[in-house]
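QUALITY CONTROL LOG
STEP: pairwise intake check
CHECKER ROLE: data steward
CRITERIA: each record must contain a sequence immediately followed by its structure tokens, with no blank fields

ENTRY 1 OF 2
RESULT FIELD BELOW
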Amino acid sequence: MSNAVFSNRYSQTSLMITDTKARKAKPRDKTYRISDSGGLALEIRPSGAKFWRYRYRLFGKAGMFTVGEYPTITIAEAREIRDWAKKCVANGESPAEVRKRDQREKLAKDQCTLEEVSKEWIAKHESHWTEGYYNQVNRHFEKDIWPNLGHLPVDAITPAQILAELQRVEKRAPTVAVLMRQWLAAVYRHAVATLRTDRDPTAPLQGSIKKPKTKHKPAYSIQEFGKLVRVLWPKEEPIAYRTTEIAIQLLALTFVRTVEVRRAQWDQFDLESDTPTWIIPGEKMKRGVTHIVPLSHQAVALIKELKTLTGNRTFCFPNYRTPTRSMSASTINRVLERNGYRLLFSGHAFRTTASTILNNIGFDGDWVERQLAHTPGNKSRASYNHAKYMEQRRIMLQWWADLIDVLRLHEGTSRPSVPPLPAIVRQAIGADHPGANASPMPFDDRLGTALH
């Protein structure tokens, strides 16, 4: 190497900025720059901020590209970015415009990940989902899908990847796995509609996850139900916290869905009128239709007692660990299990038991179905049924509460008698029906007053 070449390279190297020189550069009254090499310079502003700047010419016009701030961008990184910017200029492009384009493409790519598209789909449907369903969908995506697949673009995910996640969930909860496949299919329909992809990797997976057959707990006879009632209304030791006992007892008296008891809120109850009611808003109901529950005297007494315990909360049955949330979904069934009813009875079984007994005893099946909130799909008809059966259901629920009183106070092994049927029921079923001449228990002032 000639002395001239060596001298030139040594001169260039000696002029390049060192980290010490960059650190010690002090601000002045005006912005100034310290040259590095290849058009790169460190710009020091009066504020003390220091920025790497790259000077270039493109199509005969001078340009200045901001590489980044020092010391966030080190000297070595600044030189790498300068080299990239040089290639942009060599290709006839402004480095700033290339950077903006790359950022737009990255943003667009990020918005096409499964997590982002899923969140968009959930937000689109949130307004017409119940709070419980919305929370369920969110919870399972967060727990079962987003951790492994959420960061991937929707267009890059394969059926095999989705199947692997669904099979993992299936081992724990087969029903949830079925729901996850349905939800993912809906997410991909949304992705196709918004031009994020042109394919649905869930389509080949139809039938790959089998929904287990639902095994509802069998309905109890009056005698069997009586044994359970005496457990749920203990004479001595409580079976759970008092609020949990009241939740189970209210479930027995009204046979609404378990979730509707757990998430009951104080503003849903009218306890002071001559016709006390519990109005469950449509957004809290499985079918999205408002459900009006007439309350028996016994139910009103329970709710008033509950108000002294949780009346300062939003939820009537708050979660013990997190009072701003409602009672856990498993609480009621866990209490039943601890008291000998594991695999024998559940919160849902109150509904089947009440339906069986009331239908067998002679109550109109339409009253029972309406009280179970088995509404038809036509919502105007559902509204009509609210008005048509309200007083009949009030009579029926008061009789049901009186029956529960009879059963909880019954002692011995003999078959308990049932309260006399209301006149409206006796007239409807006729004298030949087995329940028409049911003999009542001897009067006991601890029983509610039925509307005969």
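ENTRY 2 OF 2
RESULT FIELD BELOW
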Amino acid sequence: MKLINQQRLALLGSTIALLAVGGQSAIAAEKVVLTYGFMSMEIPIEDLTTFAESGETSDDLAALFDLAGQDPVPMRDTLNTPVSVNPTVLDLALNSPPGEWMLDRVSETIHPASGEAGQLALRAALIGASSSDHELTLLEVMQVYPTPEIVVQGDRLVETYSQLYEVLEPLEDLADILGSWEF
């Protein structure tokens, strides 16, 4: 019974977090400040979407990849790699000590330009990205990120998303197990 109450409190807390962060802006992220070391450039989210979907880079994005000496293919793959996750189980996991630790680590790579409420915004974006189809991609997380501008450490993004994927992927199995239990 105590576990059920903790789950309800976690769900309530995340709902409040989604409303609080989501309420700050009627729109999701419009631009990403993509950084590679000391270089950074503002990229409209539409340019990242086009790049992820078609492989076509805008002039600014192509220039940034060239200046940073980065191959765009791993970035495109990372933006498009889906992970299946039940949003309710994700919410519970993110409201646990290991989930808070993971949010802290990931929010070092992806965070609001203001530098404030990084974990809260990331939690809202992860849950929001998974809510409609029980899967998320990094592109979807950026598209629903609840601030107008996101800072993304491009040189750490592939590694960070790989770690996030390893944490989130087993949650779908946990959702199946929990779904078979009667409370």
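INTAKE CHECK: passed for both entries
DESCRIPTIVE NOTE, ENTRY 2: DSSP finds nine helices and six strands in the chain.
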